[in-house]
């Protein structure tokens, strides 16, 4: 009788263990089983917000759960990054950030963080990157190309004005790095806190004479004849602007920023969840509607090859910005 009871108990334990193992597998397979939050470090309507909503909608279609965007602007992206990093690492709180928030801010303002950015944040994949123009005003600015700008600045030290969206922003660094590489040119920064639209207004009015700004924001004014594109920061020339050379072609390799967007998660998120997110986001970028939307904006679809490659890519981006910050000395408000 005792043997029978022991045998039954043993069988029951095996059965329970089997059920537990099966339940564990089922639980893993169910991700996502509820709404996923994507934090965006900007107000609605900008490039990062647009990318988040496009990708989120197609991930919803693929994975069967809602991907809801929450906009958390402010503090150079730190508010959004910290909220994401402090969330439970289960794949239900993500972030779509960009080169400014997720590469430049951690390099320039590490002391502003209450987290360890490198240890607490993990990239899932790069998503897209956005070409940039060096554009010039058409108001009382004689130069017709990049060489002319250099020659004009040398003859008129302290009189050439470039536009920027703020101290320490990548358009600020881009113009300052250009000035340094072109021969330590003496130029003046005109900062406009209204963002790209504010800088464009400065250029159209002639208050600023040139600036580095993304193609999507400047294209309408270029087509209207109010701005002139002198050079392009991109992997290659754009079909819509075949006569505009890249900065690399002009001998300024590494000058200018191709502003990328990427998907991020809290460190400690299970590898299988990261892999699910990686595959779903890459699949979303392959959707015809997404491809067409990005093409209209001249966004390049550039997913990482894997989650491991995404980590290598982000580390390289941060290293590059450390070098730029060391080469170009800009006084930053801490």
UniProtKB/TrEMBL annotation:
Residues spanning the signal sequence: 1-27
Superkingdom to which the source organism belongs: Bacteria
Matches recorded under Pfam families: TctC
InterPro entries: BUG, Bug_dom1
Keyword annotations: Signal
Gene3D superfamilies: Bordetella uptake gene, domain 1, Periplasmic binding protein-like II
Protein family: Belongs to the UPF0065 (bug) family.
Name of protein: Tripartite tricarboxylate transporter substrate binding protein
Organism: Rhodoplanes tepidamans (Rhodoplanes cryptolactis)
């Amino acid at each position: 009788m005792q043997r029978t009871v022991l045998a039954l108990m043993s069988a029951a334990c095996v059965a329970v263990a089997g059920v537990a193992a099966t339940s564990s597998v089922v639980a893993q397979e169910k991700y996502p089983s509820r709404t996923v939050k994507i934090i965006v470090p900007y107000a609605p309507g900008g490039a990062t917000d647009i990318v988040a909503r496009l990708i989120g909608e197609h991930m919803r279609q693929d994975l069967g759960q809602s991907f809801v965007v929450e906009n958390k602007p402010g503090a150079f992206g730190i508010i959004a990054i910290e909220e994401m990093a402090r969330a439970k690492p289960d794949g239900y709180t993500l972030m779509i950030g960009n080169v400014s928030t997720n590469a430049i801010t951690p390099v320039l303002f590490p002391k502003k963080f209450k987290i360890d950015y490198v240890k607490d944040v993990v990239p899932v994949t790069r998503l897209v990157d956005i070409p940039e123009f060096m554009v010039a005003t058409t108001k009382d600015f004689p130069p017709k190309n990049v060489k002319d700008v250099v020659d004009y600045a040398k003859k008129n030290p302290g009189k050439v004005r470039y536009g920027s969206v703020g101290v320490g922003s990548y358009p600020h660094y881009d113009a300052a790095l250009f000035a340094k590489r072109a021969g330590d040119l003496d130029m003046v920064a005109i900062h406009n806190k209204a963002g790209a639209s504010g800088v464009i207004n400065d250029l159209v009015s002639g208050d600023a004479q040139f600036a580095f700004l993304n193609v999507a924001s400047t294209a309408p004014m270029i087509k209207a004849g109010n701005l002139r594109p002198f050079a392009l920061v991109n992997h290659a020339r754009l079909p819509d602007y075949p006569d505009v050379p890249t900065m690399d072609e002009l001998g300024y390799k590494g000058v200018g920023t191709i502003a990328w967007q990427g998907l991020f998660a809290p460190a400690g998120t299970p590898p299988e969840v990261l892999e699910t997110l990686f595959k779903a986001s890459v699949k979303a970028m392959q959707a015809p509607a997404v491809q067409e939307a990005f093409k209209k904006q001249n966004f390049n679809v550039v997913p990482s090859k894997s989650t491991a490659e995404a980590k290598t890519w982000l580390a390289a981006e941060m290293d590059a910005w450390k070098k730029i910050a060391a080469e170009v000395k800009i006084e930053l408000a801490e």
